[in-house]
Write a structure and sequence with these properties.
By secondary structure, this protein is of the alpha/beta class. The protein has 17 helices and 15 strands. α5 (about 200-215) packs parallel to α7 (about 240-255) and α16 (about 500-520) runs parallel beside α17. About 30% of the residues lie in helices and about 10% in strands. It has a domain at about 70-135 and about 160-285: TIM Barrel, CATH 3.20.20. The strands form 4 sheets. An 8-stranded parallel β-sheet has the order 6-5-3-2-15-14-9-7. A 3-stranded mixed β-sheet has the order 8-10-11, covered by helices on one side. The protein has a two-stranded parallel ribbon with strand order 1-4. It is globular and about 95 Å long. The protein has helices spanning about 25-35, 70-75, 100-105, 160-165, 200-215, 225, 240-255, 280-295, 320-325, 345-365, 375, 390-395, 420, 460-470, 495-500, 500-520, 550-565; strands at about 85, 155-160, 215-220, 235-240, 260-265, 300-305, 330, 335-340, 400-405, 410, 435, 450, 455, 475-480, 525-530. InterPro entries: GH, Glyco_hydro_1. Pfam families: Glyco_hydro_1. Keywords: Signal. This is Beta-glucosidase. Belongs to the glycosyl hydrolase 1 family.
Length: about 575
């Protein structure tokens, strides 16, 4: 039976097609004449081809160490340090300020629902070649093939200790301020970080898999309380913690991966957050212990991650940021773009927001200038102006701007205006006094939104980088984090999760705009690190699927740099 079909055009009043503007008979004839139709024999064609990821050359060694080895660097360490380990068992007899009983008391108000399923480090297994097959071609990829990155461009992946390690109470680790998230006492057992990704046990497996797909840099953080359980200068150093991170670094080198280390990613020792006046000396005590041991093999170090957004989360006072300045800072920023750039009040709101988020740290560190006037003039902010000595001490003591530019947002004044808001501590937008939104003035969402904070909005990447570059004039910018966690990712079928299109588009669009920022805007971006190489504990959220499985986004991410890194 042959079926006949008729083309039906939906018409509107006036007789015009709903899909096109009316055209003349002459133009119709012209259009038809330009197209040539013909028949031929049909045959199937192969539209896929199998290609495999290329692993790294290993092991990795450096012709010249980046710092003296421990035998020379040990002279920087105090001579009376106690090296030990702890258990959760109290001593039957009093044993002093830093004894076993004191350590057990640190954990007295914190307990976890689940225990990790492992007790020892997992031996890595070989990655099957079947897992290293590239996905189908991404046909909607924009290709700026002529724009290249230098051979020493720093690219790779990142994660943080608290978000992936688990094993919070093992091997003498002390509690951190983040451990209260998901503890039994918080009535939020679903986000118990004592398990997380079990990275404390599976780091060898993870490093082997990154090397197999060709990722050359791994950025991770060292847990301060895993090294200094009590967090305080002069207190005992936890030997198993030192051994653990020494092996993480050596494993990276064994597989050909260059390690990048962040000294603190929000997991301050629990006793530190209540009084940051001792932060400089306590942090230095911790940093000396790890840098004396590892700096010969680690070329890049970041001090504090996103400390500039820690007020109200980790810190209780804006003055706490002054203490952080003495140890440097990595910045988070969701750039505030004026909702209406032609409206002066919207521009003022955006700039004021940036003053608080970036200016408080950026002014003294990069410009040698005082805190922004907008912050100092805000009543009841509890932010004391820096002294000339403080500005002199911190200015220029940072090599590059470490940046986490996930997304932009639109800013406008609060309904009462900026001045009235600044004078009213109870205003919900105080002290920033900027109403922020992802919705444009015309009502459209700026881009496809993720589960938490980022969006596919590449049109603002260059403005994010350009604002920092031209306002604070750093020597270089390292993008320490950028990533996208899709909504309801864990609810999709395994193959759908693996296809991972939204995250793929985010990374590709973001990186294409970074290329333009470098070549067209003159911004010195020296590297980019994708967040996160594992679906991590997003500070209490386990909304994403935890699987050690390669996804399309990682293949395309690696492929991007293979295409754009100069040989």
């Amino acid at each position: 039976m042959i079926l006949l079909s008729r083309l039906i055009v939906l018409g509107l009043a006036g007789g015009h097609s709903a899909w096109a503007s009316p055209v003349t008979h002459e133009s119709q004839a012209t259009t038809t004449a330009e197209v040539s139709h013909s028949y031929s024999s049909f045959s199937y064609t192969q539209v896929t081809s199998t290609r495999y990821a290329t692993g790294l050359s290993a092991p990795l060694s450096f012709a010249t160490p980046f710092a003296p080895a421990l035998r020379q660097a040990s002279t920087l360490l105090p001579s009376n340090v106690t090296y030990t380990t702890y258990s959760l068992q109290s001593s039957p007899t009093p044993d002093g300020q830093y004894g076993q009983s004191a350590y057990a008391a640190l954990w007295a108000n914190l307990s976890c629902t689940d225990a990790p399923p492992f007790t020892t480090t997992i031996t890595p297994s070989a990655v099957p070649s079947s897992e290293l097959v590239y996905p189908p071609n991404l046909y909607n990829l924009v290709d700026n093939a002529t724009l290249k990155l230098p051979p020493d461009f720093i690219w790779g992946v990142a994660a943080s200790a608290w978000q992936i390690e688990g094993g919070l109470q093992l091997d003498g680790r002390g509690p951190s301020v983040l451990d209260t998230i998901g503890a039994i006492q918080s009535n939020d057992n679903a986000s118990d970080a004592n398990i997380a990704d079990m990275g404390y046990f599976m780091y060898k497996e993870d490093i082997a898999r990154l090397a197999a797909i060709g990722v050359p840099h791994l950025s991770f953080s060292i847990s301060w309380p895993r090294i200094v359980p009590f967090g305080a200068a002069g207190s005992p150093i936890n030997t198993p913690g030192l051994q653990h991170y020494d092996d993480v670094i050596n494993t990276c080198l064994e597989y050909g991966i260059t390690p990048i280390v962040t000294l603190n990613h929000g997991d301050f020792p629990i006793n530190q957050a209540s009084d940051t006046s001792t932060l400089p000396e306590n942090f230095l005590y911790f940093a000396k212990q790890v840098m004396a041991r590892y700096a010969d093999r680690v070329p890049y170090w970041v001090t504090f991650n996103e400390a500039n957004i820690g007020v109200g989360e980790v810190f209780t006072s804006w003055n706490d940021l002054t203490n952080v300045l003495t140890a440097h800072a990595a910045f988070a920023n969701n750039l505030a773009v004026p909702l209406n750039p032609s409206n002066a009040s919207h521009v003022d709101a955006a700039l004021r927001y940036q003053d608080f988020i970036l200016g408080i740290m950026g002014n003294p560190l990069f410009l040698g200038q005082q805190y922004p006037t907008s912050a100092l003039d805000t009543p009841n902010l509890n932010l004391t102006a820096l002294t000339e000595t403080q500005i002199f001490d911190v200015h220029g003591t940072i090599d590059f701007w470490a940046f986490d530019p996930y997304v932009a947002q639109f800013a406008s004044p609060p309904p009462v205006g900026i001045s009235a808001c600044a004078a009213n501590q109870s205003n919900p937008t105080w002290p920033y006094c900027a109403s922020t939104s992802m919705i444009q003035a015309d009502g459209w969402l700026m881009g496809d939104m993720s589960n938490v904070y980022s969006s596919i909005a590449p049109q603002y990447v260059r403005q994010q980088l350009g604002y920092v570059w031209n306002t604070f004039r750093p020597r270089a910018i390292l993008i320490c984090e950028f990533g996208f966690n899709p909504f309801a990712d864990s609810l999709g079928a395994g193959d759908a999760q693996r296809l991972d299109l939204e995250r793929t588009l985010y990374y590709q669009d973001f990186l294409q705009e970074v290329l333009k920022a470098i070549h067209e805007d003159g911004v010195n971006v020296i590297g980019a690190l994708a967040w996160s190489y594992l679906d991590n504990n997003e500070f209490g959220s386990y909304a994403n699927h935890y699987r050690r499985r390669y996804k399309r986004s990682l293949f395309e991410y690696v492929g991007f740099f293979h295409d754009h890194i100069q040989n």
